[in-house]
C-alpha cells in the first residue's frame, strides 16, 4: 500500500502541473503498486480516438511514457527523470468504452538510466507493448535533497 500511496502522490503532482498529461490521461486510475511495478486502468473515451475510431497511437505512446515514469516512482522516487528513448509496438486495437489495463515495470533503476516496460491490454488482448528509458541521475539528486529536507523538519 505504501508504494501505491507514493505513486498517487507523484501522479497528483504530474496532474497539477497541467499540460498534456492532465489533458490526455485525467481519467487514469492507479489500481495497485509494489516496488518496481504498477497497475493502472484507463477507459477509452472519444478524445482518445483517432480519425478511424480506434485508440490513437499517440495516446498509447503517452501511456507508455507515464507508465514507465510511475514504475520508476514505485521505486520510492519522487522525481522520475527525463525520457531518452521510447518505443511502442502497436499489437491490436482498442475502441471507445474499452478499459485499458496498463501493467508497468521498472526493469532496472541505475544511477544514470532507468529501463521500464509497459504492457497495455484489454482483457486478454494485448493492445500495445512499450519500452521507456529515462535519464535519472538528476532525479536521484532531487530525491536525496527531498529526503534530507523532509528528515530535517
Automatic annotation (TrEMBL):
Gene3D superfamilies, per database record: Hotdog Thioesterase
UniProt-recorded Gene Ontology molecular function terms: fatty acyl-CoA hydrolase activity
Recorded coiled-coil stretches: none
Pfam families, per database record: 4HBT
Boundaries of every Thioesterase domain copy: 53-124
SUPFAM superfamilies xref list: Thioesterase/thiol ester dehydrase-isomerase
PANTHER family for the chain: ACYL-COENZYME A THIOESTERASE 13 (PTHR21660:SF1), THIOESTERASE SUPERFAMILY MEMBER-RELATED (PTHR21660)
Family note: Belongs to the thioesterase PaaI family.
Protein's recorded name: Thioesterase domain-containing protein
Organism (species): Entomortierella chlamydospora
Amino acid at each position: 500500500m505504501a508504494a501505491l500511496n507514493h505513486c498517487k502522490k507523484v501522479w497528483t503532482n504530474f496532474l497539477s502541473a497541467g499540460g498534456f498529461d492532465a489533458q490526455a490521461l485525467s481519467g487514469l486510475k492507479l489500481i495497485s503498486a509494489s516496488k518496481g511495478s504498477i497497475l493502472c486502468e484507463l477507459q477509452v473515451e472519444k478524445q482518445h480516438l483517432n480519425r478511424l475510431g480506434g485508440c490513437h497511437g499517440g495516446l498509447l505512446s503517452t501511456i507508455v511514457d507515464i507508465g514507465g515514469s510511475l514504475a520508476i516512482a514505485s521505486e520510492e522516487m519522487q522525481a522520475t527523470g527525463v525520457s531518452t528513448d521510447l518505443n511502442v509496438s502497436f499489437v491490436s486495437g482498442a475502441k471507445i468504452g474499452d478499459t485499458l489495463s496498463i501493467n508497468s515495470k521498472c526493469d532496472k533503476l541505475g544511477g544514470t538510466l532507468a529501463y521500464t516496460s509497459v504492457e497495455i491490454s484489454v482483457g486478454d488482448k494485448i493492445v500495445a507493448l512499450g519500452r521507456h528509458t529515462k535519464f535519472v541521475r538528476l532525479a536521484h539528486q532531487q530525491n536525496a535533497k527531498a529526503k534530507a529536507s523532509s528528515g530535517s523538519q
